């Protein structure tokens, strides 16, 4: 069965860093573009970053550009989100997802993880 399992979330002070990981199983990982989304209480799910199947193309929401970096290791079937200079506005549950191509639209992602909480204190 397909599973995407996020890890690496936690509580961090503003200006700090975290690295999220998403380990995939049950799918041909290299066939999929991968994305990170986040959802804060009372807000819509938001695209954060995406990466093509080969890792050659990436995309970021403007609010995280220059601070976050998405990467993948197809041999390990894992996608990462390095988050630097974290801000309180980054507080959310972060989800990884798999799609046939990079897209900002969550409805186009076929598989989703359960999420990991990121909390950034002031």
SSE order and pairing:
Blueprint (H helix, E strand, L loop, with lengths): L2 E5 L2 E4 L4 E8 L7 E7 L6 E6 L6 E3 L7 E6 L4 E6 L8 E8 L9 E4 L3 E6 L1
Parallel strand pairs: 2-11
Antiparallel strand pairs: 1-3, 3-8, 4-5, 4-9, 5-6, 7-8, 9-10, 9-11
Q: Which structural class is indicated by helix and strand composition?
A: mainly beta
Averaging pLDDT over every residue, what do you get? 97
Order of helices and strands: EEEEEEEEEEE
Radius of gyration: 13 Å
Shape from CA axes? globular
Distance from N terminus to C terminus (CA atoms, Å) equals 40 Å
Largest sheet: 7 strands, mixed
In which range does the helix fraction lie?
A: under 10%
Low-confidence stretches: none
- Seen as an oligomer or otherwise, the chain set is single chain
Number of helices, counting only DSSP H or I runs of 4 residues or more: 0
**How many β-strands, per DSSP?**
11
Share of residues in strands: over 45%
């Amino acid at each position: 069965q397909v599973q995407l399992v996020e890890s690496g979330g936690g509580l961090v002070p503003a200006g700090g860093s975290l690295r999220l990981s998403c380990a995939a199983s049950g799918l041909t990982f290299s066939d999929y573009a991968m994305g990170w989304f986040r959802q804060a209480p009372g807000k819509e799910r938001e695209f954060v970053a995406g990466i093509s199947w080969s890792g050659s193309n990436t995309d970021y929401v403007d609010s995280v550009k220059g601070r976050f970096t998405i990467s993948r290791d197809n041999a390990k079937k894992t996608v990462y989100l390095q988050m630097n200079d974290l801000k309180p506005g980054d507080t959310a549950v972060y989800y990884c997802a798999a799609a046939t191509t990079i897209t900002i639209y969550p409805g186009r992602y076929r598989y989703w993880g359960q999420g990991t909480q990121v909390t950034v204190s002031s």
